[in-house]
C-alpha cells in the first residue's frame, strides 16, 4: 500500500482526557493566538453578525462542507487490542463499555499469558477521528467473546470496511472475525498487533495460517501508537474505496 499517503500528525500524549483534545493532537493552527482570559476590544467597524439577513460564511459557491462520515469496524478476538486501538486514535474521549473480569470467566475468557488485562468490552467501543477536511472516520469496536457475536450484524450495518486485529501468538482467536467478514462481503484488513514491539511469527506465515488471499492486506501495527493505528486505518479506507470503485465500474 505504498500509494496510501496521510498528513504527518504531531505526537501527542497517549493517556488522559487531554490526549483526546483537538489542541493536544493537532496543535494550535498557524497564526492563531491562544486565549489570554481577557476579551479582545471591538474593532471600529465590526463585521455584521452572521444570520439569514446578512448571509452566513457557508453561503455562496465557495462554502465549506462538513466531512463525509465513514463507519469502520475494529474487530477481532478477545484481548487482542481492539479497545486500545480505538482509544489511541480517537480525537474524542472514547466511549467504552469495559467491565471487570471475574472468576466466572476463568477458562472461558483467556486474554493470553502475556496480557495483564483485567477488564473486557461487554457491548462496544466508539471513537472518531478526522482524516482531513473531507473525511471523518467513526470507529466501532466489537466485543471479542463468542457470546456477544449476536451484536456483530448490527454493528456491521452501514460499515464500509473493517480492521481485524490479530495477536500473532493466538491466531485461532481471530478465525471467527475473518469468517464473518468473508461471509458478509465487507472489505477488511488484517492488522497484526505487535505486542512488546515484536511478532511471534512473521507476516507470510500468518497469511498462510489464516488462509487469506493475497488481495486481503496484511499489516503490522502497534495498537498503542496513534500514528501506527492511523496508517492501519488508512489501509482499510484504501481497501474500501478500491472495492467501491470496482463495484461502480461493474
Automatic annotation (TrEMBL):
Gene Ontology MF, one: hydrolase activity
Region span, Disordered: 1-68
Chain intervals with Low complexity compositional bias: 22-42
Recorded superkingdom: Bacteria
Keyword Glycoprotein recorded: no
Keywords: GTP-binding, Hydrolase, Nucleotide-binding
A Pfam family assignment: ATP_bind_1
PANTHER family xref list: ATP/GTP-BINDING PROTEIN-RELATED, GLIDING MOTILITY PROTEIN MGLA
Family membership noted in the UniProt record: Belongs to the GPN-loop GTPase family.
Protein name: ATP/GTP-binding protein
Top-level taxonomy: Bacteria, Bacillati, Actinomycetota, Actinomycetes, Micromonosporales
Amino acid at each position: 500500500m505504498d500509494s496510501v499517503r496521510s498528513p504527518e500528525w504531531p505526537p501527542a500524549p497517549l493517556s488522559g482526557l487531554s490526549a483526546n483534545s483537538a489542541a493536544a493532537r493537532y496543535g494550535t493552527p498557524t497564526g492563531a493566538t491562544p486565549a489570554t482570559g481577557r476579551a479582545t476590544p471591538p474593532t471600529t467597524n465590526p463585521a455584521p453578525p452572521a444570520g439569514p439577513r446578512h448571509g452566513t460564511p457557508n453561503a455562496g459557491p465557495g462554502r465549506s462542507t462538513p466531512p463525509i462520515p465513514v463507519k469502520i469496524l475494529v474487530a477481532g478476538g478477545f484481548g487482542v487490542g481492539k479497545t486500545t486501538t480505538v482509544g489511541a486514535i480517537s480525537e474524542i474521549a472514547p466511549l467504552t463499555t469495559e467491565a471487570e473480569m471475574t472468576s466466572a470467566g476463568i477458562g472461558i475468557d483467556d486474554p493470553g499469558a502475556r496480557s495483564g488485562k483485567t477488564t473486557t468490552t461487554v457491548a462496544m467501543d466508539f471513537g472518531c477521528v478526522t482524516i482531513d477536511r473531507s473525511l471523518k472516520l467513526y470507529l466501532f469496536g466489537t466485543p471479542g467473546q463468542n457470546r456477544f457475536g449476536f451484536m456483530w450484524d448490527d454493528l456491521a450495518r452501514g460499515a464500509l470496511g473493517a480492521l481485524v486485529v490479530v495477536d500473532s501468538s493466538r491466531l485461532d482467536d481471530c478465525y471467527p472475525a475473518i469468517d464473518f467478514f468473508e461471509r458478509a462481503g465487507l472489505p477488511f484488513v488484517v492488522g497484526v498487533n505487535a505486542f512488546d514491539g515484536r511478532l511471534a511469527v512473521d507476516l507470510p506465515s500468518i497469511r498462510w495460517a489464516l488462509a487469506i488471499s493475497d488481495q486481503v492486506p496484511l499489516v503490522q501495527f502497534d495498537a498503542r501508537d496513534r500514528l501506527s493505528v492511523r496508517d492501519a486505518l488508512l489501509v482499510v479506507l484504501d481497501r474500501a474505496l478500491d472495492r467501491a470503485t470496482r463495484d461502480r465500474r461493474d
